Amino acid sequence: MYRSTGLRSLAILLAALLAWAAPCVAQERDVNGTKSVLMFFQSGVAQDDTRSYTVGATWKWNWRKQYSFATATGYTEFSLGRWVTSNDTGEGSDWVTQVGITPVLRLQPRSQLADWFLEVGVGANMVMPMYRSADRRFSTEFNFGDHLGIGREFGMYNQHEIALRLQHFSNGGLKEPNPGENFLQVRYVSRF
User: 23-64 pLDDT, tens per residue?
Assistant: First the structure.
């Protein structure tokens, strides 16, 4: 029963993500004329040595707000990750799969530092099966994922990005226990 419930939840989440993201995929260029779909890979580590490996895609919003000190933009991120942690017995390791969608706001300075950015995002994630490490035990498969990041664009046309992110996953108090998990992640993004 657990397996069919988890698979059904994943299928519903994926169908909703595809229906929501389809209009974004049709938009091939952002307001600057650059490709709006980017691919990423990130890897990170949590407090209790849980490691995460994530791939995904981002779709830039066709929205931009100019301020005297910075430019605000945004994008939507779809991610598929795997976490590996030591299991409760201390023998071997356990894997969980993380699937998420996150709207992200980004600020870039309007100066010589324009290649740098700060960003923040909060999204919905399924972590299946329920995450359990030696120190932590989630009580739900549905979790929120929020992050704060700093990074830099580079390359002749700024087609690459590298970023350092702090990301937190928890169910937001929907059910106890709710210990959450924090990751320090390095991300590489490229326009293909």
Answer: 444 444 444 555 578 999 999 999 878 999 999 999 999 999
What is the domain-level CATH number for residue 119?
2.40.160.20
pLDDT digits (tens, 9 = 90+) for 84-133: 987 666 555 689 999 999 999 999 998 888 899 999 999 999 999 999 88
Say how many domains are in the chain: 1
For 76, the domain range is: 2-191
Report how far apart, in Å, the C-alpha atoms of 7 and of each of 12, 14, 129, 136 are: 9, 10, 10, 23
Q: Which two tokens stand for residue 111?
A: 């100066």
Note the Cα 191 to chain centre separation in Å: 17
The amino acid that residue 143 corresponds to is N
pTM equals: 0.81
Beta-bridge mates of residue 53: 43, 82
